[in-house]
Amino acid sequence: MIKNSKRKEGYLMVEVFVAICISLIVMSTVNLMLNESISLVEQTDNRIELMEQFNEIKSSLKRELRNSNNIRFYKNNKNIMPEDGFVAVDKIKISRFDNVKSGVVKVKDKSIHVNKYNKKLFISYNGGNYEIGNYAEGIEAKKDSDNSFSIKLKLNKNNNQFNDIINIRLRN
Fold this sequence. Notes:
Elements: H1 2-66, E1 70-75, E2 78-80, E3 87-89, E4 91-99, E5 105-115, E6 120-125, E7 128-134, E8 136-145, E9 148-157, E10 160-169
Antiparallel strand pairs: 1-2, 1-4, 3-8, 4-5, 5-6, 6-7, 8-9, 9-10
């Protein structure tokens, strides 16, 4: 009778060890699936935020650019005309001519640029910089016709990239 009880105790240890191993495998699998789900949710949130940011930037840029009379693109402080496809630009300068009551034409200049250190997009005028968007990595531009331009905006948040094109037709 003593021999039987020792055997049962030995089998119990093996059974407990097998149960612990199976539990660890199941918990590891559940943990892996949970981490993947959290990662997908974060990526989706980042993508949605980038799309919302792009739409806000798009409306600001369209308003500013459509009401301008002149658009100039700059790369390395040199005026360029991007006619053969998209070209990376550092700055976009726009001018709007306003008629003053006395018949004098007043020029209002603005510039659009990306601060690459903090990934923010700014419009500069009247001596100040006004932020219009986050996560901006760069701007590319191309001339479609005499009064039509396309601007490709590159956004990036936590290695989630979003690129889209803004088509602009000048009114003036």
